TrEMBL record:
This is Aspartate carbamoyltransferase. Residues 2-149 form the Aspartate/ornithine carbamoyltransferase carbamoyl-P binding domain. The gene is pyrB. Signal peptide: none annotated. Keywords: Pyrimidine biosynthesis, Transferase. One of its GO terms (molecular function) is amino acid binding.
């Protein structure tokens, strides 16, 4: 695996190998006072974020440091990007400076693919940490890891992805990866928050009625309403959205006892999810963040170490 740009590029064997590696790393570090492995000593990992982030950026940084890599954070506001430097020139500069891996978050869909093209012929790997409304493959991997932990095998499991599908790179990556792993995904959203051509996605169904779907689900994945990407009215009000699509205690009781609730964060409490649900034992939101570190460790391992360091 040279780069990780899209969940679409992950076949079942590769995705399973990444998840198994993440699980192995998690067990290896469990109970250690010093959570440090020598696996990537001497490697340089750069996080290049043109958009704000807490979970993704921090977990990549922690993942790299726990594997003894040198991690350097580059932000658009504090770099030559602020002077007008192009993404291409930034990429070539970082590669020339010795980056073994560039982790990119960018507001333009396709930016990570372009970066990988520009770095073709160099040893630098590229990880897509979210590009516009396109994809976020490591988020899909950590969600799959969390679901495996809670539910076991994903084959035949029914998962609803609920909310702002239109603007969600998380939804796109999750639909592709979960389908690859054998899950049946249903999209639940108002018609205004579904993208054109969504019927061609590998989904089991598309619904506008969350309550009708709840009794048959193994998991509910709530999406953040991305107001910053909205220009115009996509729903009447936050209150009406919450009434129709928010996860509250009443809806939680309609789910089967084993069903789990996920959210990629940041959460809009009281709109997409009530605090009582977010903080309940049925919620795996904190586990998603924890698993995100181990999944991103696994990604860095497969990109930068691979079989040469396999036990």
């Amino acid at each position: 695996m040279k780069h990780l740009l899209s969940a679409e590029n992950l076949d079942r064997d590769t995705a399973t190998a990444l998840l198994d590696t993440a699980d192995h790393l998690k067990r290896t570090l469990l109970g250690r006072e010093v959570r440090k492995l020598p696996t990537l000593r001497g490697r340089t990992v750069l996080t290049v974020f043109y958009e704000n982030s807490t979970r993704t950026r921090v977990s990549f940084e922690v993942a790299g440091k726990w594997m003894s890599a040198d991690v350097v954070n580059v932000s658009a506001t504090g770099s030559s990007v602020g002077k007008g430097e192009s993404l291409r020139d930034t990429a070539l500069t970082l590669s020339a400076a010795g980056a073994d891996c560039v982790i990119l978050r960018h507001p333009a869909s396709g930016a990570a693919h372009r970066l990988a093209t520009w770095l073709d012929g160099t040893p630098t790997a590229v990880v897509n940490a979210g590009d516009g409304t396109h994809e976020h493959p490591t988020q899909a991997l950590l969600d799959a890891a969390t679901l495996r932990e809670r539910l076991g095998s994903l084959a035949g499991r029914r998962v609803a992805i609920v909310g702002d599908v239109l603007h969600s790179r998380v939804a796109r990556s999750n639909v592709r990866l979960l389908a690859t792993l054998g899950a049946e995904v249903t999209l639940v959203a108002p018609p205004t928050l579904l993208p054109a051509g969504v019927e061609r996605w590998p989904v089991a169904g598309i619904s506008h009625d969350l309550d009708a779907e709840l009794p048959g689900l193994d998991a509910v994945m709530l999406l953040r309403v991305q107001a910053e990407r909205m220009h115009g009215g996509f729903f009447p009000s936050a209150r009406e959205y919450s009434i129709a699509y928010g996860m509250n205690e009443t809806r939680l009781r309609r789910l089967p006892e084993h069903a789990v609730v996920l959210h990629p964060g940041p959460m809009l409490r009281g709109m997409e999810i009530s605090s009582s649900v977010a903080d309940s034992p049925r919620s795996a939101i904190t586990e998603q963040v924890r698993n995100g570190v181990h999944v991103r460790m696994a990604v860095l391992y497969h990109l930068l170490a691979g079989e040469e360091h396999a036990e």
